[in-house]
Specification:
Chain lengths: 517, 517
């Protein structure tokens, strides 16, 4: 089965209920009330200004605009006053936030556990002594990771590479996949890997080497010889910079740097005018909702996509461009990178979304960021590069942020927030289903059943979507658009009964007011 | 004149003394003693273990190795005990640190001003409420930037784009350069830019558009039409993903993600097995030292490089691949990106290294990270992309880290650390010159005159360099290698007389012991 690997994936695949068991491992209570932790959390939204953004937000945005692009501003926030599920803005408006900084807030604004961490010596020291982690890790690095990120390592990928953000995490995993692919090719050809001494030579050392000719490249031994590889990679040329490619799915989003943006196929605005790698993409199956009504059609669509993935791998290999990495089940020795930058850390009702895919083998790389605060990828020891300093950078993540991840994970576990989110998500989904029947045409293709609160639907048109999101903002609910006409819910893991009630009430009111307009 | 744009640049170009004036603007005292701020800073290195790394470091490194690649570890640090210029490790060894986390520490370990910031409410709130800065900036964002990063904006580039690290900063600037280049092409062709509505369409909207044929691309109007651009960029193809290229210099280092790594030409180990863009690179002039002895030869070498840059731009344009960005003075409408990730923030004796280049026009983009803690690029308003969400990502830097930048900048200014570093660097350079004459062959091509403490030299061979660096570590001085046989000094801005004395004493002792071996 194909898994939802797209970071902005408005869709979420279905999963049998027994997979939910994974979420219960550390979760004695099944429901959580944010009021038990956030004593000052508002009970409902409150909009004081005539419009959202209000006049104070608009003025503050103009000030920022003097030095930084303000055109994507939604509002200017007052983070000191924000609490739990509620985002407060500089006009004093209180918004129920079901977008959560594009899925970056895990356990609520100004969570007391995190604020407590912020005031500790360990956090101050970690924040203010920026280490080059790959060369000078701190005494507490191992423990921070062992008590945090390692406790939620997906099955089969117990090793860790840390980065600063989600794009960096995906590109780090992609680099590791390319290196592992080439190492395997060399091994299969019976050729020794290059040595640290060879690889550490600087560009001037290769000046005397004549560039290898195409005919030489046809000889696998020559093509894989160290000197040919070294000299050519310094010129960004094959074989040292190999003709390998990475495959992704159309409509997927994997980041915005040059490698990750080449994988991203969501919208033109992300990609226009930026040079990109000539890499293949395959159409995502057009899934119809509700899933149980369209089971056989959806199965056929998925089968067509799987066939297309296989064909593409073969077609591109014939062009001399082997697919080294892919964001779906492994085929043809292709490494599987699961991008859990947005889907990871509990919102789908399991800690990692791919737990529900029932894979025969674990993925090769699982990337994370956003709710985790820390970013990076999990992998197996077998994909550690042949030499140190190959996948390396000065900072390689941040110890202070790894501490935040540790506390977030710990709170999620001790309060059963993954199971809580699975239960709340089921209820929310069923209520949204009822709403969609009451307002036909306004909530289409509702998706995310059995996927916690990771729920999305389509409006009738892009314009209707924008109108709906704007009207919800005026009611004090911050929501996010996605794709052309979709709306995605990305609430925090502390989103509970009370907030579901508010969200549904506000949605009903807005849908009524927009009905027939 | 060509400027040293390489982040790991072991060389630093010369500059007339009057340029030093730039550094004095905010600097009443010319010399700073770290003892005035760091009351517990060691007076000299102390090595307790039989070897460096000591047994406790080695054991701690093995523990990390169970989940993360440990092969680039130098030692495991005790950051809580580190102070000022001194890095303490888990064996209790005290090292004078002139590498400073690959140039990432600006004003000393556990600087009291920064530890004080760490304990404030503003820092706790900023750290623990991760915003999507481009859409939901906080109430204090403008002030944090106005009191910090904006106060040191290089001349001519008063706008700011923030990112999470140096590679991201360089790629962000590169994306902005490509977008600005294409916008200018469209404008020159009298073609309207695409609209937000067109650009926000998702990939499925372009499915019905047939891919544009090569012959169509020859027609500039067709090539620049919105629909052709949108449809092609979704397939990573020209013209939407343009055939524009970026040029860099051989031996330069600009980062390790897919775009920045394509610019990097330092060592094969950074590049092997990673697919790269087919982009041009030009040899850096082979400068001979001391500069005053080789003035005319060096001028010729620089002239040859400039000619080669021009030829390359013309040659690649003939192939249909226009150079859009370059890391040197602007030519042919090429945007100039100055990579100050390592050179920025004072260590060269001016706040920005390019202040010494005497450019007729300001650079188009100046990137920063490392010592600034915050990362990003400065630019002119004219290179702001045509639409919001084009150069955008979820996090876009960090408010907490921008506060660190604010305090670091403020301390640098109030204590005249740029001028201090200029003065200390001059003294250090002159002492190193004397050492090089006493130990002929062991310190070659000493460079960085009039460039603060941004000083480097070549050992006799890669082996001799490694031996020297290892021997210095056993004496309690952490130094960094660079390139094939170079040693680079990257001390903090609080590096003063006392530390110069210790460094020279230890160097002399090590050079003596290695002499004739």
């Amino acid at each position: 089965m194909l898994g939802p690997t797209r970071r902005t994936a408005c869709a979420a695949a279905s999963a049998p209920a027994h997979c939910r068991a994974l979420a219960t491992e550390h979760s004695p209570p099944t429901r959580f009330s944010s009021a038990t932790v956030f004593h000052n959390e508002p009970a409902s939204p409150k909009i004081l200004s005539d419009s959202v953004p209000g006049p104070v937000s608009r003025k503050a945005s103009q000030v920022i605009g003097q030095f930084q692009d303000p055109r994507a501003h939604v509002l200017v926030a007052d983070y000191a006053k924000s609490n739990g599920n509620y985002l407060v803005d500089v006009d004093g408006n209180q918004h129920l936030d079901v977008f959560a900084q594009i899925a970056s807030i895990a356990i609520g604004y100004n969570h007391p556990t995190l604020i407590e961490l912020a005031k500790t010596d360990e956090f101050a020291i970690a924040s203010m002594n920026r280490p080059a982690l790959g060369s000078f890790p701190g005494a507490d690095w191992a423990e921070t990771i062992q008590k945090g990120l390692l406790t939620v390592a997906p099955k089969g990928v117990p090793h860790l590479f840390t980065q600063m953000d989600g794009s960096g995490a995906n590109e780090g995993a992609l680099k590791a996949a390319f290196m592992a692919y080439r190492a395997r090719e060399r091994k299969e050809a019976g050729i020794d890997d290059f040595s640290a001494e060879e690889a550490s030579l600087s560009s001037s050392s290769f000046a005397s080497l004549t560039p290898s000719s195409p005919s030489q490249h046809n000889n696998v031994l020559t093509r894989l010889s160290s000197s040919t590889q070294m000299a050519s990679c310094m010129n960004n040329a094959s074989p040292g910079s190999p003709e390998l490619v990475a495959m992704s799915f159309k409509s997927g989003f994997h980041g915005r740097l040059f490698g990750s943006l080449s994988l991203t196929r969501s919208k033109a605005i992300h990609k226009l005018d930026i040079p990109a790698f000539d890499w293949p993409a395959v159409s995502w199956p057009s899934i119809k909702y509700p899933l149980d009504e369209y089971a056989s059609e959806n199965a056929e669509a998925e089968a067509r996509t799987i066939a297309r993935v296989e064909e593409t791998i073969v077609e591109w290999a014939k062009k001399g461009k082997k697919v080294a990495a892919l964001i779906v089940e492994p085929e043809h020795g292709v490494y599987l990178i699961v991008d859990e930058v947005q889907t990871g850390v509990g919102a789908t009702g399991s800690f990692w979304a791919h737990e529900k895919w029932q894979l025969d083998h674990p993925p090769d790389f699982v990337t994370f960021s956003k709710k985790m605060q820390a970013a990076g990828y999990y992998h197996a020891e077998s994909t550690r590069p042949s030499l140190p300093y190959r996948n390396y950078n000065t900072w390689m993540g941040s110890p202070a942020i790894a501490m935040q991840a540790r506390e977030i994970i710990s709170f999620i576990k001790s309060h059963g927030l993954v199971q809580h989110t699975a239960v709340i998500g089921d209820e929310l989904f069923s209520h949204l289903g009822a709403l969609s029947r009451r307002f036909p045409g306004m909530i289409n293709n509702l998706r995310g059943k059995d996927h916690g609160t990771f729920i999305a639907w389509d409006a009738e048109s892009p314009q209707a979507r924008d109108k709906f999101v704007a009207a919800m903002r005026h009611e004090g609910v911050v929501m996010g658009g996605c794709g052309e006409r979709a709306i995605r819910l990305r609430p925090m893991l502390i989103f509970g009964d009370k907030q579901v009630e508010v969200l549904l009430e506000k949605m009903e009111s807005v849908l009524k007011s927009l009905e027939g307009k």
